[in-house]
Amino acid sequence: MPSDFTATLNLACAATGPGSASVEGTISLIGSGGARELSDGPHRLRYQLFADPARTIAWGDGSGDGRAKAVSGLVGPTTPLRASFTIYGRILAGNPNAAVGNYADQITVVLNY
Predict the structure, then answer these.
(1) Coil, strand, or helix at residue 40?
(2) Alpha helix ranges (H) inside 1-113
């Protein structure tokens, strides 16, 4: 049976120049085109990330179809741009090597502006 989870991605951008600037862009995940894997030594759990709470829009699946979240705001040397994004995940059913443990994976996030 699949198991759902959420994670929060926090973004903070600071400016190094003397003035403020408007930022308009997108944030996206880079994917491998298939299910991702959490690992704990030899044990693996397959999972997928989604852009919506219903978990119908895969995010970072390698499809390159523009699944990105908008980022906008004002950034300055004393006023960083801050944004938070919820990432919806699902550990897929049928993980034959599953065991109790501390599983981890690394994802890559790209900010285009």
Answers:
(1) strand
(2) none
